[in-house]
């Protein structure tokens, strides 16, 4: 198997590396700006050079490059190596923008895509409800068209980032008489309005990253609907596909594992670096096997993409595998930390994860439990892989609930 990218693409890698050498980190007075301001400036240069927002047309603020998954992979690798900022990571850029580009109409793309990819506006995802998580199509929040506006009543839960979001993309039941999946519409709505109450939920990490959101006659204009009335289920499938793609990243797993190896070098067992202890080495070696397997599964997806073939179930498998490995890596880190691993994760989980200290691992461990649930639980994904990927009979419970 040839895992090299070939001469032409290695030449492209040289171009990307040169761009990064010249542009990141910023120099002179620009280096005195805070990180976010530097990132905004750098991203614009990277878009102008054709390295970021590649699949977004120029009219919506992107760099509109010919699709090339191998070039995109090289950019990810080089930007990752030099820790240069890529597109802002968030629900808006990773989930809503691809959905709007695929299913939105012209004015929606023009209004919402540019400020979202610049990071000027933040989005949250209003899908889950109490009692409607895995069985999402049973959702009850109502949307009624009254005098040219959608009027929304009901409740969402586990809405990440709802306290700081400017907008929500939300699934509501607009056709109560239609069958379960056919009665749902996909709406965009302004979060800053009197009909919306956001209540943060405290997590075991100490942070409050997600919320309950209550709608009491909340409103959104009639044309803030993506796709047709009653087609929200179809539109929401586009969004979920992008969510799983973004979660199943092999680079993140490799970076996490590299951090674990460093931790094993730094921690001591009986006065010697933990990495020299046979039982720790054995666990590290087993984990490295999974990390490598995950990396090669990533190449498999890349090869399929490069050939224009649908990666199908591999993407879904990658999400399960990466969340499992992430959990096992964090578990070993907690063991290496010993008593220090009992410390409070402290502050918000996201801030703790970005820090270099022990709390990063505690937070990772706690968060790894949630990541296996976010974007569709591992059980549900195994069902999908079994049923759609392997052609096994449908799950009996799901069969009953869809009737
Ligand atoms: C960190 C995090 C962030 C999130 N962010 C958001 C967000 O921004 N917006 C949003 O809308 N939602 C969000 N969610 C919610 C998430 O999508 C739901 O938690 C998820 O879909 C599961 O739904 P549930 O919690 O209601 O669990 P349930 O559906 O009640 O599932 C409970 C358990 O039963 C199992 N189960 C259920 N049905 C079946 C079945 N048919 N076969 C086998 N097993 C089954 C599940 O696997 C799970 O183990 C987030 C969740 C987490 C953890």
CATH topology of the largest domain: Butyryl-CoA Dehydrogenase, subunit A, domain 3
Whole-angstrom Rg: 23 Å
DSSP strand tally: 10
- % residues in beta strands: 5-15%
Biggest sheet strand line-up: 1-4-5-8
Helices and strands, in N-to-C order?
A: HHHHHEEEEEEEEHHEEHHHHHH
Query: Can you tell me the CATH superfamily of the largest domain?
Result: Butyryl-CoA Dehydrogenase, subunit A, domain 3
Cα distance, first to last residue? 48 Å
Structural class comes to alpha+beta
What are the segments in which pLDDT stays under 50 over at least 5 consecutive residues? none
Our count of helices gives: 13
Q: Give a quick account of the main beta sheet: strands, pairing sense, barrel closure.
A: 4 strands, mixed
- Bound heterogens, unique: flavin-adenine dinucleotide
Please tell me the overall pLDDT: 89
């Amino acid at each position: 198997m040839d895992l090299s990218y070939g001469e032409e693409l290695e030449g492209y890698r040289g171009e990307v590396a040169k761009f990064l050498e010249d542009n990141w980190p910023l120099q002179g007075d620009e280096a005195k700006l805070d990180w976010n301001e530097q990132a905004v400036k750098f991203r614009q240069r990277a878009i102008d050079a054709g390295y970021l927002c590649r699949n977004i047309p120029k009219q919506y603020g992107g760099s509109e490059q010919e699709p090339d998954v191998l070039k995109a992979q090289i950019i990810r690798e080089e930007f990752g190596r030099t820790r240069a900022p890529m597109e802002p990571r968030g629900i808006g850029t990773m989930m809503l923008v691809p959905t709007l580009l695929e299913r939105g109409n012209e004015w929606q793309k023009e209004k919402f895509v540019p400020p979202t990819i610049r990071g000027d506006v933040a989005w949250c995802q209003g899908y889950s409800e109490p009692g409607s998580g895995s069985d999402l199509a049973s959702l009850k929040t109502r949307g009624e068209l009254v005098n040219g506006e959608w009027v929304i009543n009901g409740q969402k839960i586990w809405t990440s980032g709802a306290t700081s979001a400017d907008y929500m993309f939300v699934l509501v039941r607009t056709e109560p008489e239609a069958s379960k999946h056919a009665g749902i519409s996909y709406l965009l709505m302004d979060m800053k309005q009197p009909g919306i109450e956001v209540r943060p939920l405290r997590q075991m990490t100490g942070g409050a990253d997600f919320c309950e959101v209550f709608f009491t006659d909340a409103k959104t204009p009639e044309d803030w609907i993506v796709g047709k009335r009653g087609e929200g289920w179809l539109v929401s499938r586009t969004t979920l596909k992008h969510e799983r793609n973004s979660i199943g990243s092999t680079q993140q797993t490799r970076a996490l594992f590299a951090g674990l190896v460093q931790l094993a070098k730094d921690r001591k067992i009986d006065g010697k670096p933990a990495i020299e202890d046979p039982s720790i080495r054995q666990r590290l070696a087993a984990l490295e096997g999974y990390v490598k397997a995950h990396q090669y599964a990533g190449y498999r997806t890349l090869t399929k993409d490069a050939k224009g073939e649908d990666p199908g179930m591999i993407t879904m498998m990658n999400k399960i595998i990466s969340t499992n490995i992430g959990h096992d890596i964090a578990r070993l880190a907690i063991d290496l930390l010993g008593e220090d691993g009992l410390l409070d994760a402290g502050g918000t989980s996201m801030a703790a994860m970005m820090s270099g200290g022990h709390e990063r691992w505690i937070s990772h461990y706690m968060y790894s439990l949630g990541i296996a649930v976010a974007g569709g639980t591992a059980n549900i994904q195994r069902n999908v892989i079994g049923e759609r990927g392997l052609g096994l009979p449908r799950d009996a419970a799901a069969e009953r609930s869809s009737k």
